[in-house]
Design goal:
Elements: E1 8-10, H1 15-25, E2 27-31, H2 36-51, H3 64-70, E3 74-77, H4 85-91, H5 95-104, E4 112-122, E5 149-155, E6 167-168, E7 187-188, E8 196-200, E9 205-206, E10 217-226, H6 235-238, H7 241-244, H8 249-254, E11 260-261, E12 269-270, H9 278-283
Parallel strand pairs: 1-2
Antiparallel strand pairs: 2-8, 3-4, 4-10, 5-8, 5-10, 6-7, 6-9, 11-12
Helix pairs in contact: 2-4
Length: 296
């Protein structure tokens, strides 16, 4: 049996080729997803946020199992859309990521939405995560089911096997759930800064171990999900209306402020306010707090 391969393409390649590689292997590396200028401006916004990020052993998590999962050597910045204008306007709406999401998620929802945008800065001594499928966040979803999620890890510095490059098991999106990979079936997604490994929610993967003496592996975990599922991050609180108001309309939609309107498909709607689309209310300033309320 031949060793599995992780396909590698460029941001200049045709979207159909990227989608095809993702469908075939469950993951694909896309080099040059962020150009050097965009990468530099994004990292410049992140630098002060990471400087103030508390070490994991001082940080509270929603569940002790989550603290164990991430380990004690990772700095986190969450809710990126409300903290980085570069991310909100230029990365969240990346044409390749949205094109892939159109192809994978679009057939099974009226619209998809941001699931999570999370900086993971893995430091020296960080242990490899347990191999997992991201779609198990929705463990109550009966199987078989359509793809629920398009995920990515965007390299904000060079990713190497030594500093903790994401571990991918190509083809595992088509495996029975009970099958476990052998060491030879696990590939480190090594890639230069600005690249991304895009993978399906059903693909087995993990954060790799950082065995370096002093290198921090800074990455952006960015994923999109069917618009009728609950998201991992609560975007309405992480990016509340007073912040979302100034963001591009497509960003507001991806944050979940738009209704999921499946009426044309014979369904119903989700996420209305006063029987209206919150996007209309946001545009008219009707979701903003009264003037001066935030100063009280």
């Amino acid at each position: 049996m031949s060793a599995p391969e992780l396909p590698r393409l460029s941001a200049e390649d045709a979207l159909n080729d990227i989608v095809g590689a993702l469908d075939e292997s469950g993951a694909v590396v896309v080099e040059g997803l962020l150009d050097p200028d965009l990468l530099g401006r994004f990292n410049a916004e992140l630098d002060p946020l990471l400087e103030s990020a508390r070490p994991d052993h001082d940080r509270a998590f929603v569940n002790p199992a989550i603290a164990w999962f991430f380990g004690e050597h990772t700095r986190h910045v969450t809710g990126i859309a409300g903290k980085s204008s570069v991310f909100a306007a230029e990365i969240l709406t990346n044409s390749i990521l949205m094109g892939v999401s159109d192809a994978v998620l679009g057939p099974n929802c009226a619209r998809y939405q941001l699931n999570v945008a999370h900086i993971l800065d893995r430091g020296p001594g960080g242990q490899a995560q347990i191999l997992h499928r991201d779609e198990l966040v929705w463990v109550h979803m009966p199987r078989p089911h359509p793809e629920l999620q398009v995920a990515s890890m965007v390299a904000l510095v060079d990713f190497t096997a030594d500093n903790g490059a994401t571990l991918i098991v190509p083809g595992s999106h088509r495996w029975d759930y009970g099958r476990q990979p052998t060491p030879g079936e696990i590939i480190a997604a090594e890639m230069p800064a600005g690249s991304a490994v895009i993978y399906l929610g059903s693909t087995i993967h993990a954060g790799g171990a950082n065995t370096t003496q002093g290198d921090w592996r800074r990455g952006l975990h960015l994923s999109y999900v069917l618009g009728w599922l609950r998201t991992e991050e609560n975007h309405y609180l992480a990016t509340p209306p007073d912040k979302a108001f100034a963001l591009p309309e497509v960003t507001q939609e991806l944050l979940g402020y738009a209704v999921h309107d499946a009426i044309d498909a014979g369904g119903g709607y989700l996420g209305a306010v006063e029987l209206r689309d919150p996007m209309e209310l946001l545009a008219h300033g009707e979701l903003l707090p009264p003037s001066g309320a935030l100063d009280e």
